[in-house]
Amino acid sequence: MKTILHRADSRGKADHGWLKSFHTFSFSSYYDPERIHFGALRVLNDDTVAPGMGFGTHPHDNMEIISIPTYGDLEHKDSMGNTQVIRQGDVQVMSAGTGVTHSEKNKNHDKEVRFFQIWVFPNKKNIEPRYDQANFPEEAKHNKLLTVISPAGSNDGGVQIHQDAWFSLGKLDKGISLKYELKKKGNGVYAFVIEGKISVNGKQLHRRDGMGITESDELEIKADDNTEILLMEVPV
Fold it and tell me: How does pLDDT run across 183-209, given as a tens digit for each residue?
């Protein structure tokens, strides 16, 4: 087993006034040659958007873009004609494919919105763009790891992307232990602590810490406190 540890306070930072963002991997003006990506996982941004503000219309192509809100309401509009609002408990996917434009705006004028913006390299280029979202109730994640992202064409649950990747969310009570078995040989897992404190294969991680694990077929997870965790299994 090999690991790479990224503590929360080592992430890149950006403060644009209306947007405060922490970058696990190189993004925009933050560049670290040692932190470009973890396999197919290219971007993991921890964003806070001020009331009534947001990302104006801008283009993407050939990227799987995933948004996971943790607080507030985020309004999505795109060139495919979709207008949707995502909230805590939702997971949104946009396959940019041949090209799409979109905007993401804080729907509310009296509270901020917080969400994770995640980009994954696709395994197919120049596909037809698509959009999807789904809600995952809190009880479905309680003391278990719930699949919220899976490969297109699979029957593994969640919303789908064009990559052999599986994302799982769990909300674990202190003292709970679980095992995660990798879905595909040769993949790695990037474990990210949303809240709390957890041990992954004996290594303790705190709030907003991340760790990439390769050359392992399974993970042993123990909640050292009430914890919310995101596991991202991707090709490496």
Answer: 999 999 999 999 999 999 999 999 999
